[in-house]
Amino acid sequence: MTDVASPPGRAGARRLTRRQRARLRRLGVYGVTLVVAAWLVVVTDWGRLQEAFFDPTIFGDQFPDMVTRAARNTITFTVLSFAIALALGLMFALLRLSPIRPYRWFAVVYIEVFRGVPALITIFAIGFAIPIALGTRVPGRYGAGCLALGIVYSAYMAETIRAGIEAVPRGQLEAARSLGMTQARAMATIVIPQAFRIVIPPLTNELVSLIKDTSLLYVLGTTADTIEITKFARDEVGRTFSITPLVAAALVYLAITVPLTRVVAVLEARGRRAR
Q1: Distance between CA 106 and CA 102 in Å, rounded?
Q2: Residue 249 and residue 261: Cα distance in Å, rounded?
Q3: Which CATH number do you get for residue 210?
Q4: How many domains are there within the chain?
Q5: Torsional class of 135: left (φ above 0), alpha (ψ -120 to 50), beta (otherwise)
């Protein structure tokens, strides 16, 4: 019986293994990427780009005020808001796990409302609705902004902390109760410390997001004592008619957030080794 020869193209394709085809695809992607990058380098007007986005004189003028005033206020807003969010988040996580049904309902409504409503609306409500409704303002120079962000982030942290508490083996709570501990003491000394070790990485991610969301507080109005990084940069853009202040602001944000993200990576790696 006469053998029928396969087309050369099909025979050649069969000689390539799956790994070789995947390597060729990767090389093709790398080649296209290099060509596009080279084209961008050639056609870009680097002089105009530097003038608009990285004017050395304007960049230098942003410091030290961007660090000593704006970055300091951003960090202050972040720390105070995170403390409020952590306290409220723990409280609502425990209410969410409560055997008392009305407490659970209240916690669910709180969490769903403040996770579903944009943060900007909550900031408006705390900053303007409360003074109109109650005739009083949240005290403190940072009070309204920190309370608003604390409420928003407490809803997210409540679910994170609840997941951490549920991840602790139930047997540990039962063993503590069998030794005569009350429910509250067992939760405070046995369960919650272990839960926080589990949820430290996601809580650190929430902290990074909170740092960036302090930029929303400009809607409450700012003074020289409360101006944060983004508002400072926007004012400088209006003064200099250059985007350079925003580039400086981005670098300051990176200087704050990158170490935190590295901390998250280290904690996650440590957690994987411990497990």
Answers
A1: 6
A2: 18
A3: 1.10.3720.10
A4: 1
A5: left
